[in-house]
Amino acid sequence: MGDFDTKICNDHMNECLSRLLLFYQFYPNLCRNQVEFQSLYLLCNLGSTNAAMHILSLPVKIRKHPRIQLALHLNRAYLEHNFVRFIRLIEKCNYIESCALLKYRTSFLISSLETMNTAYHSKVLTFPACVLSNWLGFDSAHQALCFCQECGLTIKDNSICFTKGAMKERSKMKHKRTFSQKFVDCKLKKRSPPDIIKGLEIKINETEKPPVDMWNYVN
After folding, report:
1. Residues 87-93: what's their mean pLDDT?
2. For strand 159-161 and strand 127-128, is the pairing parallel, antiparallel, or unpaired?
3. CB 54 within 8 A of CB 18
4. How much is the pTM?
5. 46 in Cβ contact with 78 (< 8 Å)
């Protein structure tokens, strides 16, 4: 695990998802998990124009499914940097969807703090850690304070002092990977490992296409 490379892992995962999406084009009636994986494809590529256009080009019965719509709403909130809405939408995600979103957590939290540092700048007033923890989905106020401190913000009496210019450059931040009991781990209790592996089987009535050798289209 010491040699684990996040970029290589993401590249391999996206390659597998791309091949799976190609399979769906040829055998739509054999894909009971299509909604789940179409949704995961977008969640793994938030902010990507190509991923969003792919989802919007899906048949209406798939595109209008609640899981797909949730992924689209998350993508919009991500692009708009609407951190409060983004966090509220994550609450509606299931375990696998939350895992897919975890890779954005650290960078999204830093972006949110940069926005708040400008919006709530004050030489006198401070911002309550409990409110920040709720807004940004930290597991506790203590976790929020530690994260803010690593970003360069001053902590005073369980509150954050937002001051323009206080945030460190991202290259100088030494955040460890931020796990989330609130949005990820706690959802595992609602599903067993076999259920997660089996996935969400959702039947979509589509007109069956004639079998085609899809491998002729794979590079």
Report:
1. 90
2. antiparallel
3. no
4. 0.78
5. yes
